[in-house]
Each structure stands twice: as C-alpha cells, then as structure tokens.
Design brief:
alpha/beta; Rossmann fold; seven-stranded parallel β-sheet; 15 helices
Length: about 425
C-alpha cells in the first residue's frame, strides 16, 4: 500500500527558535494568561509518545510535563502510548471508542509508535476526521533510511518511507530537531514545519550527580554512549581503540561503552543483545593485555545523565549519510552539562557548537582511523586540555539547551500553527 503520492498543495513554513518570524508572545504575556487564547478554557493535549526511550523523553514527556507544571491554567494533558488500544497479539484496535482522542484539542504523536507505523497513521487519520489539531514530532529522517541500517529491510517491506510522507502531509504542525532535517522533509509538509531543539531539564538529579574520579591518576576515560541502531557507525571506529592503547599507553586510558539493554530472561534471542554483542566484538578488536574497558547497562531516561559523570571525553563516530546528517545535537547538551568535550564525526549539526581545540574536535567524515587515533592520543596525554575544553562546552550549553526557552518557543510555534490552520479553514491568509 502506498500512503503518499504526488506533489503537495502548499509550501510549508520553516521556523527556528533563533530566527522565527512569529507574532511572538512574551514570557510575561504567556504567564498572565488564565485560559488558552480564543478557547475560553484550558487547551487539551493527548500526548502519544512513541515509547519510553530517550527521544520520547526529550521530545514528549519532559517538555509537556514542564508546560503543565508552569501553566496549569492553560493546559490539560493525557498521556497514552496506545490511544487506539492496539492488541499486539491480535494486531487489532480496541473497542472503547478512543476516549482520549474525543477529549483532546491537540493530538501530539512522535516518530513511529511501538505498535507499528500503520497504528501511527491510523491515529493521525482519526484525529483529522475528528477535527483535532495534529502535531507530529520526529528526530529521525524516516524518509531516507540508509542501506546499512539494521531495520532497512523492515522499512522497505512495510513501505515506511511513503507512510512517513503521509504523516508529514496530514499534520498541521511538524517539528524536527535541526535545519538540515527540516529542509529534507519540507517538500512533504503541507502545514507548518518548525525546528525545535532538544532540551534537558538540568534541574533533575541525574544531571547534578558528582563527577566521579578516574581509577588512576592522570587516567582519561573515553566514553561512547549509544543505542541499538549504530552498527554501521561503530564499524567506522573499529580499529581506533586498540591503536590508541598502543600510542597513548593502556594505563592512561579507560574505555567505557554505555547503553547495553538489560537482558530479558524471557527472550533469550533478543536481537538487541545480538547488536551489543556485535558492538563489543567490533570495538574490542585487537585489544591485548590488561583490561582497560567496561560495558555499562543502559539507564532509564530519567537517570540517563549519570553515565556522563564517569566520562572525560565523549566520542560520536558516525557514518556519513543523510540520516545521520539530520540528527540532532542532543549529545552536545548531555556532554556539556558534565563538562565533557565531544570528539565526533563532522556530520549533522555538531559544527554549531563544537570548535576544534576549544569545545571538542570534529573529525572529517572521510578521515582514516589514524586521524581519530591522533586526536584522542593527543588529548589523553593532556588531561588539562580535556578539562579546559569541557569547561568551554559547559559554558555555552547551559544557555543553548535551556528547557524554559524551548518551552516558550513551543508555545509560540503552536499558537502560530493553530492560527495558520484556522486561517486556512476560513480561506484567508494569516498575518
């Protein structure tokens, strides 16, 4: 089945926090409101996060919970990861009449839910039929999955590229994480398209843990924090750890690989464990002698930040493709909080914040493992430089990824997009 065909009826409008041409309501004005403008009551949100993973936490759970706490007079929220009551065994919808969809004014959904792509577009389709405002948010370029992605065949078999285009074309507001991503999906959007940065609630305990000291004096801990879709990226880095061990000295470096999912005793053939088995084989290839590495289990999203308290240099090797080039810079926000400089492939939007020798290093996509080895070896031999770069990154991330700023930007974008929809329905242009 093809979900998307043909060209679009209208161009989208791309808005960013830095340069969005909006009728911006000031913070004071928002805080003075006791009801949603023009509605006469609270605005009702049905938030349908894709899952409970990191992306959903940053893009759905955390910002909307912040909005609710800050503006209890403006908003009501219901959270439901399965508003259609999909029975995963029967692959069928429930029969209760979609109570939450009937109740809400705004239907917010994100990525492709755990119940499958068709469930996502079914929810959007029903919301549209009911006259609800549809807000779709994503941090993955699902219109262009690269060939080496583990789930590439699944995407092809389920026609998820066209499904995603359908979602873009039928959403009143689409929000993504960075400008290059927006430019790539703009041709498929008929409503408002906005860039809204990720943000972290730095007041949470997980982002205020004390920095743990290394096990040895002058030892530098290099950390890779990764999920389950980085097999191609890890291959780019395969030869580097053992080469750094040889050049810098094993006693001066400790490698930490963070994010292995806990084993499920009821699922011995869990493909996620297989992925991490492959990670370890790849990253530890060539290791000889005393152990100077550890693999750490993934933490819940609310505790995620604690991992960085045990890292001195973070690495983000990435394959050069459009999917990765559309990724957000959330790792910068994570690293900066714990004063950890980032060494990353120059892909995506890292160049907005990472300056060579000041806040980290960007490695050209076509660089050989020798270049990675040179940079990391130099830093491991100079812990003072590492600390200086970490301080520099910290000083800019505190402001750049401020959750309060992002929350107000969300409000501005939402009001603008709702006005645009209303104007379209009236057949006039919005101011």
């Amino acid at each position: 089945m093809s979900y998307y065909r043909g060209s679009l009826r209208a161009p989208s409008i791309i808005l960013t926090m830095q340069e969005h041409q909006l009728p911006v309501d000031s913070r004071t004005q928002w805080e003075a409101m006791t009801e949603w403008p023009g509605l006469g009551r609270k605005l009702r949100f049905l938030v349908a996060p894709a899952n409970k993973g990191g992306c959903s936490y940053y893009r759905a759970w955390s910002p909307f919970e912040t909005l609710h706490k800050q503006f209890p007079n403006l908003f009501e929220f219901r959270y439901n990861e399965n508003p259609l009551e999909i029975d995963t065994e029967k692959q069928a919808e429930g029969t209760k009449g979609y109570e939450d969809l009937n109740w809400c004014d705004v239907f917010f959904t994100q990525n492709l839910c755990n119940f499958g792509g068709p469930a996502t577009i079914r929810g959007i389709g029903l919301a549209k039929e009911m006259g609800k405002f549809v807000w779709y948010d994503t941090d993955d370029l699902l219109t262009n999955i690269y060939d080496d992605h583990r789930l590439k065949q699944l995407y092809v078999e389920n026609d998820l590229e066209n499904l995603t285009k359908y979602i873009y074309a039928n959403s009143d507001l689409v929000t993504v994480t960075q400008s290059k991503f927006a430019e790539r999906v703009a041709p498929f959007c008929t409503g408002v398209l906005a860039v809204i940065k990720n943000a972290i609630d730095y007041e949470l305990p997980a982002w205020n843990a004390p920095k743990r000291p290394p096990m040895r004096k002058n030892q530098v801990r290099v950390g890779w924090v990764g999920g389950i879709h980085h097999e191609a990226d890890v291959k780019e880095f395969a030869a580097v750890p053992s080469m750094v061990n040889q050049r810098a000295g094993r006693e001066r470096v400790h490698w930490g690989f963070y994010g292995r999912p806990p084993k499920d005793p009821n699922n011995p053939k869990d493909w996620q464990q297989e992925v991490w088995d492959n990670y370890e084989r790849t990253l530890l290839k060539g290791f000889r002698g005393a152990k100077n590495w550890d693999v750490y289990q993934a933490l819940p999203s609310s505790d995620y930040g604690i991992m960085y308290s045990n890292i001195d240099i973070a690495i983000a090797p990435l394959q050069n493709n459009e999917f990765n080039d559309s990724k957000s810079d959330i790792k910068v926000a994570e690293c900066g909080r714990y004063k950890v400089p980032l060494v990353a492939t120059d892909v995506g939007c890292y160049s907005d914040t990472i300056v060579n020798g000041q806040t980290g290093y960007l490695v050209p996509p076509d660089a050989s493992p020798k270049e990675w080895t040179r940079i990391l070896t130099s830093l491991i031999k100079n812990p003072r430089k590492v600390r200086e770069m970490g301080e520099n990154l910290h000083s800019i991330t505190e402001n750049l990824f401020d959750l309060q700023k992002v929350v107000y930007h969300r409000l501005d974008v939402l009001k603008f997009a709702m006005n645009q929809k209303e104007a379209k329905m009236k057949g006039v242009a919005s101011d």
